[in-house]
Amino acid sequence: MTQSVRRLIYLIAALCVAGFMLAACGDDNGTSKSADMYQQSDTLRVGVMGLPPMLGNPYASLNAPTIYTWSAIFDGLTYVGNDSVVQPWLATSWEATSPTTWVFKLREGVTFSNGEPFNSNAVINAVEYLTSPEALTEVVAQMLSSMTGARAIDKYTVEITTAVPNVIFPREAASLRMVAPEHWQRLGPQGFAQEPHGTGPFRVVAWEPAVARMEAFEGSWRPPHFKKLEVYAVPEGPQRIQGIISDRLDVVLGTIPDQMEELEAAGHQWVSIPGGGIYTFSMILNRDHPAFGPDNEPLMDVRVRRALNYAIDRQAYIEVLLSNTTRAPSQPVPSTVFGYNPDLEPYPYDPDLARALLAEAGYPEGFDLIFEVVPGTSVPNGVAIYQKIAEDLRAVGVNLELKTFPLPQYFNAVHTGEFKGQGFMMDFPTAPQLDALRGMRLHSCLWKTPWLCNEDDQAMITAAMAEPILARREALTQDIMRRYHEQAYLIYLFERVDYYGVRGSLEGFEAEGLFIQYDKINWSSK
């Protein structure tokens, strides 16, 4: 895309970017606030791809864009930084008192935004819900499936038990977000979602179709610098960027490198942070999957799967479409994640080897594939990258047809198996705990409708998850990474990088594991 074309797109987007930007259609009598006037605002305005469809139930998701909103409201027991180190958060320390029990010391003096105290009772409330039949469909309950119960040792000391040894449970406890217990019990999950109360820096005032309105919780253990927070749903990346340039937004999440030049030229900041995962095309390789059919048969041959990986010139689109801000993956996770295997190398671009492997596997003329993708998601420059991959595969005889389906249909297909092709775009997630085995809950027999299920692999995964010695668990996980690399279960695209735009007059923006530390954002003192 040329510079002139990009400028035209952004100009059009600026004229009427979204429903929340009334100005394009006349707000302020056709004028916008000046930077100086805007700097005096006590409201932080954030643009995201979408608001949580489940509103304020923090157990329903672990991924973007939902977590961007929840970062302002909820806290976990622990926090995992981009360096993969587990840090104290609502819990100040922890120790294993047996292979299946962990004792957490809790931060004292913390309250929820409705005035309830944070203590052992809050942790017990969360654990009891997540281990109950009512929570079977909650994503966080599935993530923390090893938990069996909790009991108070004293007001600020709680013991959590697991069904099997779980040596990385403190890492997983970053997903154990705390909710005001009495409020939760009184309203239930659905009622609480409408009126959520956590320990974070803001509390929700109103959920509207395109904006979540919040006000500062000044009694938070990490109070914010702004009195109000407004999180806007702005689906398109250019619109989010124009939100900053036109003085309508302060921070935008989920942007793309193409927009860097426009943002910096307007005097604003561009931030890229490792996302803790990788983007892939997942293939339906389980014969028992509802979508498995005759067209999936070529993918059952490892030579074919390796050929698909050799056929892709990843460096070309990483340099051109991702501004060289990331790299090609060698395995399902990036190097910052616990369990990463440093001995593996990415599949090199070798179309001749790809053709030879296809011929060896019995497909000298290639074959046809359909992969499904979601348009307008957080995959940076996704459409252009998908098209480049299709061109590369076509060059070795594999005709890849890309079909789009809306996000709700995609989520439904992940759960029900109702895909229409042989593969689909899927990330290999590790956030918020940055553990390589986190993604295995999707990409293995552990998933309820698994597209990949191999008994030998599952035995390795089960052994690693149950290993009580940390160093040994890491080694076993690295063996699994090697296995997934050698079997080419995934078509590797690139290591995830999250791109953020920040108003030039702001400071303190930080994001780790998709968690935005809203309390640190402030107007610059310079």
Please, could you describe this protein's structure?
The protein has 526 residues and is α+β, with helices and mostly antiparallel strands. The chain is built from 16 helices and 20 strands. Helix 13 (382-394) links the parallel strand 13 (367-373) and strand 14 (398-404). The longest helix is centred in the C-terminal third of the chain and has 18 residues, at 470-487. The two termini are 36 Å apart. The model is unreliable at 1-38 (pLDDT under 50).
> Which stretches are poorly predicted, pLDDT < 50 over at least 5 residues?
1-38
Sum up the overall morphology in one term.
globular
CA gyration radius, whole angstroms: 23 Å
Number of self-contained structural domains: 3
Terminal residue distance: 36 Å
What is the percent of helical residues? Answer: 25-40%
Average pLDDT level: 87
At CATH level 2, the architecture of the largest domain is Roll
Q: Let me know the number of strands.
A: 20
Based on helices, strands and strand pairing, what is the structural class?
alpha+beta
The strand line-up of the biggest sheet is 8-9-10-1-11-16-12-15-13-14
The portion of residues forming beta strands comes to 15-25%
Describe the sheet with the most strands. Answer: 10 strands, mixed
In CATH, the topology of the largest domain is named Dipeptide-binding Protein, domain 3
CATH class of the largest domain: Alpha Beta
What is the overall number of helices? 16
